[in-house]
Specification:
By secondary structure, this protein is an alpha+beta fold. It has a domain of 50 residues. Helix content is 17%, strand content 16%. It has one helix and three strands. A three-stranded antiparallel β-sheet has the order 2-1-3, with helices on one face. β1 and β2 form a beta hairpin. The chain starts with 25 loop residues before the first strand and ends in a 16-residue tail after the last strand.
């Protein structure tokens, strides 16, 4: 065992916030094992405390501000 973290998969639409059930954009992998999923709102609320406890944070909330690219073949 190398001690390296396994790569985390991107969050998908089926991943839901553990607090409210909205789409999850933040994954907190806990040092003792397990993970918590949060929407952007609840993630912002809890992310500092989770980091202090040693959680590894995967934050994909920037996807919320992305605009879809237009398809140049569609006119």
């Amino acid at each position: 065992m190398t001690g390296a973290l396994a790569p985390t998969k991107p969050l998908a639409a089926v991943d839901r916030c553990d607090r409210c059930g909205a789409q999850a954009y933040i994954r907190a992998s806990l040092p003792m094992g397990g993970e918590l999923l949060f929407c952007a709102h609840h993630g912002r609320r809890h992310i500092s405390a989770l980091r202090e406890k040693g959680a590894d944070i995967q934050d994909e909330s920037a996807r919320l501000s992305e605009t879809p690219t237009s398809n140049p073949t569609e006119r």
